[in-house]
Amino acid sequence: MADQANRRVLIGCPVHQQANVLSLFLTSLNRLKAEGLELHYYFVDDNQEEASSELLKQFANGQGSGKVTIQYSGMKDVYNRSGVTHCWNEHLVWKVADFKNEIINYALAERFDYLFLIDSDLLLEEPTLLQLISAEKDIISEIFWTRWQQEARPQPQVWLRDEYKQWEQQRGEQLSSDQIAERMEQFLSRMQKPGIYEVGGLGACTLLSRPALEKGVHFGPISNVSFWGEDRHFCIRAAALGFSLFVDTHYPAYHIYRDADLPGAEAFLQKSHVPKFSSSSVITFPEFSDPLPSSIKPRLTLSMVVRNEANRYLREALGRHRRYIQDAVIIDDGSTDGTVEVIQEMLQGLPVRLIRNETPKFSNEITLRKQQWEETLAVKPDWILNLDADEWFEDRFERELESLLSQKDIKVYCFRLYDFWSPTAYRDDQYWSAHHHFRPLLMRYEPAFAYRWRETPQHCGRFPENIFELPNGLSELRLKHFGWASAVHRQEKLNRYMQLDPDAKYGWKEQYMSILDPSPRLVEWQEQQ
């Protein structure tokens, strides 16, 4: 076995999954803690949905060269996953067994120290993999609980003997139904307490050591055993080879068994992943842990950075945005005025995640924008609208927004921004012509996409720089920017640029100098209906 600091782990998964579930699964994999580990991935792509295959490719692109192997099955089997249960047949069971054995053979050939086999409808807590390895067991699963029938109580995927007996019973021992019920309660109660327990059967979320693989564990059928499911045959074979089976219950996984489990899946990921910034505090009102109504689909999250905006345009901006957003994530970057009170007043009744930086980060914009991005992802958004505190769209935006969000083939929308030099007119000359170009302001978050930032202290962009690799489109809806609309504010901004970028390394020197032009060319705004 390799030294702990050099342990190589293969995460393997046969994938026949709908895209919305697979996206959550891949997000979960991306978040796994792996200190001291070298992670690789092996997916058997058995998908029917093209979108699911595309998600695997995007995940692979984000992991780096040679980290992900995708093996296409070439099969077109129909796998029925109803709102009640999953429908398996003999062919499908042993097809999946063959896929798992293919992954085992790859792990052996490439001499991995561990193989972590996981089903694509499970979500993991971040420390799961490190916890399983620290147990130092040859075969160990992380527990998860499922209602196998909609009205039934949740049960774990582990059992003690035979096909799925979850109570202690010695050979030849006769038990009454009351005794069975009592012993089953004891087992289920034990499984709810954090610990590591020996079991007789397990599956779906299992770590295998290299010694177990080398000794011959696999998922092929045992000809003289009639038990249903490849996991039963795996466990019997493992026991016959001398391996004990264990379950860890410290970090229960989340099972998306049916579509009704999806809201809980989003809450699970949200609960498990809250980025921490040492110089910040987080305020939420109301709590984001309460899922938004399922009728709000897709969800539009406003993302914003503010600093000392109480007496500027923030009140007007939020008053307009609250008409069409479902929630908001706002970074208050060290305000010393009543900015927070304005936010609380104007967004009262909406879920708001408000992060307050005790020490401002505005002098290094990339740090601030990355913080804004991570905090926004923490609420699991569908669509992100990234605006500044002095911006709002023309009136028709509210009427046409639903049409934008309903487009399935566009992930990023770009808009023209008009720099107002007075309350009613925008500037239009060689130095101020932003409205002749389109910039990204609205995007659908794709968890499996590997986002990359432009690493510059200023003018780094509101979104990661590579979002145009996603399908994108232009909108004729116009954004009004009032940050330059008063002489006082223009002087303040010029002072800031001269302080942060005196040599115009990240901007345009002539444009900086034109800010105080006494007679710029202005055009009166015409509202469109």
Defining key terms:
529 residues; alpha/beta; 9-stranded mixed sheet
Written overview of the protein:
- The protein has 529 residues and is of the alpha/beta class.
- 29% of the residues lie in helices and 24% in strands.
- It contains 14 helices and 23 strands.
- It has helices at 19-31, 50-63, 90-109, 128-134, 177-191, 210-215, 230-240, 262-272, 314-321, 339-346, 365-377, 396-405, 487-500, 509-514; strands at 7-15, 37-45, 68-72, 80-81, 86-87, 114-118, 122-123, 139-146, 155-156, 196-199, 205-209, 245-255, 280-285, 300-306, 327-333, 352-357, 383-386, 391-393, 412-419, 425-427, 439-444, 472-481, 522-524.
- The strands form four sheets. Strands 1, 2, 3, 6, 7, 8, 9, 10, 11 and 12 form a ten-stranded mixed β-sheet that branches. A nine-stranded mixed β-sheet has the order 13-16-15-14-17-21-19-22-18, with helices on both faces. It has a two-stranded antiparallel sheet with strand order 4-5.
- Helix 1 (19-31) packs parallel to helix 2 (50-63) and helix 9 (314-321) packs parallel to helix 10 (339-346).
- The longest helix has 20 residues, at 90-109.
- It is elongated.
- The model is unreliable at 82-86, 272-279 and 285-296 (pLDDT under 50).
Summarize the structure.
This protein has 529 residues and is of the alpha/beta class.
What's the structural blueprint in terms of helices and strands?
Blueprint (H helix, E strand, L loop, with lengths): L6 E9 L3 H13 L5 E9 L4 H14 L4 E5 L7 E2 L4 E2 L2 H20 L4 E5 L3 E2 L4 H7 L4 E8 L8 E2 L20 H15 L4 E4 L5 E5 H6 L14 H11 L4 E11 L6 H11 L7 E6 L14 E7 L7 H8 L5 E7 L5 H8 L5 E6 L7 H13 L5 E4 L4 E3 L2 H10 L6 E8 L5 E3 L11 E6 L27 E10 L5 H14 L8 H6 L7 E3 L5
Parallel strand pairs: 1-2, 1-6, 2-3, 8-12, 14-15, 14-17, 15-16, 19-22
Antiparallel strand pairs: 4-5, 6-11, 7-12, 8-9, 8-11, 10-12, 13-16, 17-21, 18-22, 19-21, 20-23
